[in-house]
């Protein structure tokens, strides 16, 4: 397992392993203290000799010394593990923060590139009659027209340009590109006679630039 500061980035799994080891060390420390408690409660500091300076015979001196030594070693291990857990969590948090900032920057860059690459519209749909060819094709009110058949911002002069294309395309699908909510949308519009007026059933106005 990679340790904090190692060559491989720390993962959540690494932190979980460190915490597991910390819990195991804590359990071992607790077991050692319980052993000392069972030896007349000598603890870590009680003297192991009697009043006359002789080794006490009411406790298992070897067990007590071993338990005390183990507690000191385990406490050092515990301290080191706690530091590793803290460093690992710090690295995870920093990486998550960095990833979030990167994601935000990428989203902003994408939004800006989309805005910059959007073509220029020359007219706008300000009315669509229900059941009309325009309505059936999916045209919506406030759609800004970028291309209407062969008409685009470079050759558009007035609405007569669109009327001419419509008359010449009766019964044939026209490729229409509009801007809707900041995105390009392609619509297949077939001018034809229907119950209402004209061949489209929508009203288009030129955009003032």
How is this structure best described in words?
The chain has 209 residues and is of the alpha+beta class. The longest helix has 57 residues, at 61-117. A hairpin with a 2-residue loop joins strand 2 and strand 3 (151-152). The radius of gyration is 40 Å and the shape is rod-shaped. The protein is built from four helices and six strands. It has helices spanning 12-38, 61-117, 133-137, 159-168; strands at residues 123-128, 144-148, 151-152, 174-180, 183-189, 202-206.
How is the secondary structure organized here?
Layout: H1 12-38, H2 61-117, E1 123-128, H3 133-137, E2 144-148, E3 151-152, H4 159-168, E4 174-180, E5 183-189, E6 202-206
Antiparallel strand pairs: 1-2, 1-6, 2-3, 2-4, 4-5
Helix pairs in contact: 1-2
Give structural attributes.
209 residues; alpha+beta; six-stranded antiparallel beta sheet; 15% strand; rod-shaped
In terms of per-residue confidence, which ranges show pLDDT below 50 for 5 or more consecutive residues? none
Mean pLDDT: 90
Structural class: alpha+beta
User: What's the order of the H and E elements?
Assistant: HHEHEEHEEE
CA-atom Rg in angstroms: 40 Å
Major sheet attributes? 6 strands, antiparallel
Distance between the termini: 63 Å
The percentage helix is 40-55%
> What is the molecular shape?
rod-shaped
Number of strands: 6
Q: Estimate the strand proportion.
A: 15-25%
Instruction: Give the helix tally.
Output: 4
């Amino acid at each position: 397992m990679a340790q904090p500061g190692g060559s491989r980035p720390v993962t959540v799994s690494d932190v979980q392993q460190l915490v597991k080891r910390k819990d195991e060390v804590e359990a071992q420390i607790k077991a050692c203290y319980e052993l000392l408690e069972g030896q007349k409660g000598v603890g870590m500091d009680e003297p192991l000799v009697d009043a006359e300076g002789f080794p006490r015979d009411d406790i298992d001196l070897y067990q007590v010394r071993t338990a005390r030594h183990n507690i000191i070693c385990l406490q050092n291990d515990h301290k080191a593990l706690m530091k590793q857990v803290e460093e690992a969590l710090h690295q995870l948090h920093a990486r998550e923060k960095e990833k979030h900032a990167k994601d935000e920057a990428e989203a902003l860059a994408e939004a800006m590139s989309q805005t910059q690459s959007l073509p220029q519209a020359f007219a706008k749909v300000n009315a669509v009659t229900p059941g009309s060819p325009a309505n059936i094709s999916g045209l919506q009110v406030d759609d800004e027209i970028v291309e209407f058949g062969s008409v685009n911002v470079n050759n558009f002069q007035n609405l007569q340009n669109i009327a001419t294309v419509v008359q010449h395309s009766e019964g044939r699908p026209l490729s229409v590109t509009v801007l809707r909510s900041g995105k390009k949308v392609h619509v297949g519009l077939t001018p034809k006679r229907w119950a209402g007026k004209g061949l489209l059933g929508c009203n288009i106005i030129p955009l003032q630039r």
